[in-house]
Specification:
Layout lengths: L6 H35 L8 H14 L1 H6 L6 H15 L16 H13 L5
Helix pairs in contact: 2-4
């Protein structure tokens, strides 16, 4: 069976090439931006809030350790994967199971009434 190139095949290949080229341009820009930020920040420690760590951990775990090692990043792959492990550990700490579900406290007026009845009726036991 012979393969015949249809016009829409050519259009699809052109679009895929354009999309790939645009994505590569975006990636190159983001890498350059990261490099500039690293140079501007110097050797000082970058302080992140928990939400920023969480976002980097989720995205970093999706990429995997090998790809993270190839990318020139502000944080080491070990650090990002450590953040992900901590995120998973927080999710599965079973804290909700350790809460005690006890009977609600008795109101003070009921306690006073019970004590008064006990004092007035010593033979009740």
């Amino acid at each position: 069976m012979e393969f015949i190139l249809q016009p829409w095949h050519l259009l699809l290949a052109t679009f895929a090439g354009w999309l790939n080229r645009e994505q590569q341009t975006i990636i190159e820009y983001l890498r350059a931006e990261n490099q500039v930020l690293k140079e501007a920040h110097g050797k000082s420690r970058i302080k992140l809030i928990d939400d920023q760590r969480r976002r980097l951990a989720v995205k970093g775990k999706a990429l995997g350790c090998n790809i993270l090692k190839e990318i020139d990043m502000a944080f080491s792959p070990d650090t990002i994967l450590h953040w992900h492990r901590m995120l998973v550990a927080q999710k599965w700490d079973y804290q909700d199971l350790h809460q005690t579900h006890s009977r609600p406290r008795i109101r003070e007026e009921f306690i006073d009434l019970i004590l008064r009845m006990a004092h007035e009726n010593p033979s009740w036991g």
